[in-house]
Amino acid sequence: MEKRVVRGTLVLAPQNDLLSKLSVLAMAARYDNSCSSSGGKRETHPYGLGNSRLSGICHTFSADGRCVSLLKILMTNSCTNDCKYCVNRVSNDIPRAVLTPEEIAMLTVEFYRRNYIEGLFLSSGIDRHPDETMERMVQAVKILRHRYRFHGTFTLSSSRGLRGSLSKRPFSWPTG
Ligand code: SF4
Prior knowledge:
The protein has four helices and seven strands; from the N terminus they run E-E-H-E-E-E-H-E-H-E-H. The chain is an alpha/beta fold and about 180 residues long.
């Protein structure tokens, strides 16, 4: 199993299995308080209904007042910064993972097809440069819009320290 090392911390490589990465990145997104998180962990009979996980789905409100569910994940919980309050700070020894834009788009569509969510709440640590991180997040949205024709709800949390062209022009969602 190939692993990358970022400042001494083991990182799950992009080719690691999607469920492992989703588990790490949905749990890491719990601490992003920009919208309300989904409920708690609940185990029922193995063949029963009503099992739930601690993280992964959050909610927001649409323009017409409906409450909609969003897949809430980080693109990566690797970060070169060391903000003391943040669980993803570089000095914290935790499992790290990274999703590619293609994987984010595919996961969003698969959750949508199962009727779990109507959109995506995407945030990220800054594993290289803030501009590059933001470009990859936008790339995921472009894949959703253009390849999958997905017109659900998107919420992107912008990268801290954004300096490039994305910070200078008003952001408009890709249309397709
Ligand atoms: S830049 Fe963001 S993700 Fe990185 S340590 Fe600071 S608050 Fe956490």
